[in-house]
Amino acid sequence: MTNTKWEISGREFVNCNCSYGCPCQFNALPTHGFCQAVAGAEIETGYHDTTKLDGLRFAGIFRWPGPIHHGNGEAAIVIDERATPEQRSALLRILSGEDTEPGATIFNVFAGTLSKVHDPIFSHIDFEADIDRRLGRLVVRGVTEGRGEPIKNPVTGAEHRVRIDMPNGFEYSLAEIGRGWTKASAPIAFELSDSYAQFAKLHLSQSGVVR
Fold first, then answer.
1. Where are the domains of the chain?
2. What is the pLDDT of residues 68-86, one digit of tens each?
3. DSSP 3-state assignment of 109?
4. DSSP character at residue 24
C-alpha cells in the first residue's frame, strides 16, 4: 500500500452463478461449490490522487474453481475506452487492490485470490443500473453481455423485493437483490441464467466503504 488517496462513488450491477440469496454474502459456501461472476459499475464522482475519475465505467469477469477464499481464480478487467492514460492507470491500481488498506475493499480482497489476471481490455461499456427498480444492463461487445431484473413471485408474478444490509462489508452498505442473465465470451467464457444479481450504490476509498 502507498500513501495515495482515492475515492469512488457510483452504481454497480453484479450477476453471479449462485441462487438468489448468494451464500457468499453470508460467509457461506457458494451454491454450486464454485463461483462465476460479472460485475459492472459507473463512477459518478471519483478521484485517485490528482486524477479525476468522474463518469467512467469499468467491468470485471471472474471465475473461481471453488469458493473464492480457496483462491486459484481468474479475472479480466475492462476499462472505459474514454479514459485517458492517467485515468486508466488510476483505475487499474484501484481495481487491482493497490493503494488500499489490506482487506478494506472487495478489489483488494479479490486480488489475493487470483492466480491469473488477463491483460486489461479498453473498450466501450454499455452500462445501466436502476437500483430502486432492480434493473441493470452491461454490454461489452465481444466480451460480455448481461441484464438484470427483479425477482418474481412464482405464484402471482408480482415483483419480490429483498435487500441485503451489510454494516461491516467491504463492497456496499445496502444492496437490492434481483436476478440476472449473462453470457461472458472472452477471455473467460461461461453463461449465467436466472441467478443472483445485485444492484447497489458503491462508495469506496482506500480505507473501505465510506459510510
1. 6-209
2. 999 999 999 999 999 999 9
3. helix
4. G
